[in-house]
Structure formats: C-alpha cells, structure tokens
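Predicting holo structure, zinc ion bound.
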Amino acid sequence: MPLTLLSVPREVGRRWARALAEKRTPGANLAATLWADHLGNVMNCFLCDESIVTPPPPFTQLLPDKAPDQVVAAPLCPACAALPPMVRSHRCMALWRKVIGAPHW
Ligand SMILES: [Zn+2]
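Done. Tokens:
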C-alpha cells in the first residue's frame, strides 16, 4: 500500500489550512501545487487505507512533523474527509502517534 505523505514547510501548511478553513480558492490551488508530483498516482487513505484516485488532489489532513518548522500532509478518502472535523483530526492524530512512535505531541 503506497502511503503518500508530504512534508511541507509549516508556513505553507498554515497558509493552506487557513485558506481551506475560510473556503477560499487558494486552498484548492495550494493542494493542487503540493500534490502536483503525485497526481495521476493512486494514493491510499491515511486513515482507512482506501484507494484514492487522483487527480483531483485528495482532501488533505495536516499533521505535526518531527521537524519543528515542517508539517506533514496526509491524503484522506472522501468518506474519511466527510467525518466531523474533531473526529477526523482525533483519529488522524491517534494513528499518526503510532506511525511516528512518539507518545506525546
Ligand atoms: Zn479513508
């Protein structure tokens, strides 16, 4: 299962999250830019491992990276993207902690 995670500069991630939260188009444009090298690939959902066919760029969950000035972008399938935001981020963080093996963030 090809799990595709992107490490992006924190400032980019923050700008992106803000644009998405405000439903401004730069959010979608940034997503397309960030995933540009991977569009056309099949990705697997970070949460449920469902295949995601691209393009379009997948819904993206941002996670803290180990590097302090970076964030990690993880692709989610439409079903997981449709989860209530609190549930979604909680599940992502729980899984992410296992992936990186760090109990406290
Ligand atoms: Zn999923």
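The chain has one domain: 6-101.
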